[in-house]
UniProtKB/TrEMBL annotation:
Keywords: Hydrolase, Plasmid. It comes from Rhizobium sullae. PANTHER family: MONOACYLGLYCEROL LIPASE (PTHR43798). It comes from the Bacteria. This is Alpha/beta hydrolase. Residues 34-256 form the AB hydrolase-1 domain. One of its GO terms (molecular function) is hydrolase activity. InterPro entries: AB_hydrolase_1, AB_hydrolase_fold, AB_hydrolase_sf.
Length: 278
């Protein structure tokens, strides 16, 4: 596995003050190819995609910290639609008129919303560990852990061992800063997003998506299991699906090279079919 130096990730971020939204931090790799807009999951930051960057160097990677995460200020709301509006404002401010969206978990939901909102901008959508209904069981240890968080959150809180657990070991030089950044998020945001999830159903949004879609999932995903995958496949019957046997909720952390390979194969097909990407 390629080692990615994590110490300088934060220093690479740029801060953009949006006209009607929060200041948003983002990383722009400046790569030569089409724009990939990478959207991270609940409690993560742009760092979530740092392990993928070396494998997708042919593309221009634009990787924001979502509002209230990482170095980005809190936005106007914590619903997926609120995050999508803020990302759309960022993309517009950067002058990007065409991109491919790659979203993980909550980022996949935001990606669906953004694709529905701006179909002329999004040329294709890749969802890693996506779902239509991100419900968390009330009696689940993860749910209980989130609801019991209080400020200041300790990065060594046992919740993070559950939250970031997976079948394959993840390099601690990556996972430790991920946990520290997650712990820096106020408990009100953790709980607020969880509350929004309990009311969310993306089925109608998914039914309106007409761009090429790739769904990547781990067979051992403990958050969004086979039932979630089947519902997503039913709502997106023309989507291509890849099930990574033995992997969990964060396959792009567990084996970024393999995930990047699946993304690259899909995108090559998309780019052959459509030559309008800049």
């Amino acid at each position: 596995m390629t080692t990615v130096e994590q110490g300088g990730w934060t220093n690479r971020k740029r801060l953009l003050f949006l006209p009607d939204g929060p200041p948003m931090a983002f990383i722009d790799s400046g790569g030569p190819g089409p724009v990939l807009l990478l959207l991270h999951g609940y409690s993560d930051s742009s760092r979530s995609f740092s392990l993928l960057e070396p494998w997708l160097s042919a593309y221009r990677l634009v990787v924001p910290d979502l509002p209230g995460h990482g170095a980005s200020a809190v936005g106007s709301g914590l619903a997926v639609s609120d995050f999508a509006d803020d990302v759309a404002a960022l993309v517009g401010a950067l002058g990007i008129d065409r991109c491919i969206v790659v979203g993980h978990s909550m980022g996949a939901m935001i990606g669906m919303t953004l694709t529905d909102l701006l179909p002329e901008m999004v040329g294709a959508l890749v969802m890693i560990s996506g779902t239509l209904r991100p419900t968390f069981p009330k009696d689940d240890l993860v749910t209980e852990g989130i609801l019991s968080l209080s400020d200041p959150i300790n990065p060594a809180d046992p919740l993070f061992d559950l939250w970031h657990a997976g079948p394959y070991p993840i390099d601690r030089t990556f996972l430790d800063p991920v946990s520290r950044e997650a712990a820096a998020i106020p408990s009100s945001i953790w709980k607020g997003i969880l509350g929004e999830f309990s009311r969310l159903d993306m089925t109608r949004t998914a039914s309106r998506i007409s761009v090429p879609v790739l769904c990547i999932a781990g067979s051992e995903d403990m958050l969004f299991d086979a039932g979630h995958r089947l519902a997503l496949a039913s709502a997106l019957p023309d989507a291509k699906s890849v099930l990574m046997d033995g992997f969990g909720h964060n396959p792009h952390w567990e084996d970024p090279e393999q995930v990047a390979l699946h993304v690259e194969r899909f995108l090559q097909g998309v780019l052959v079919a459509e030559r309008t990407f800049d």
